[in-house]
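Internal tracking record. Fields below are filled automatically when a chain is submitted to the structure queue. Please do not edit lines marked as system-generated. If the sequence contains nonstandard residues, flag them in the REMARKS field before resubmitting.
Queue: standard
Priority: normal
Entity type: single polypeptide chain
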Amino acid sequence: MEADIRIAADAAIAEMAQLLASCNQQQANQVPFAGSWTAAQVTEHMRKSLGGCVQLLQGGAKPTTDREPDEKVKDLAIFLDMGVKMESPDFVAPEDKEYDKDALAKEMETLRREFNGALGGKDLSETLTDFEVPFLGEMTRLEVVHFAAYHMQRHNQQMKKIIGRLKGVEV
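SYSTEM-GENERATED OUTPUT FOLLOWS
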């Protein structure tokens, strides 16, 4: 299970960079419909979120002894339900500005390597202590990997809709 979710997270991060790369600079910064972020803003949101995950994975940890290390995974599956509308916490919300899409795609690839590196040789069952995730509290490394994978997969679906609308191909 641990290897599968690591592979899923890696693939989802790579897909986000590829989706952004499929846009030109103008498309990446174009609002596709009222109330939507741009493709670049979605990527920036995920850059901030994934960067936070990397920091958390590299931070303090303690053995998880009072619960199963994957206990919160079922709660994280909410990210895969596209029917549920969510609001981004301010600390990972993207600015309303024009982004350099090539630089942003490169940053996602860099974060992909850092994310994978932060997992290397670490005990995924340990509880991370440097940050409590809103509504979930302290999470294990295994739960953070699930969070990253599910969150990224959710926003990849959003990106496909945005890009489809911009290119006139509904997804």
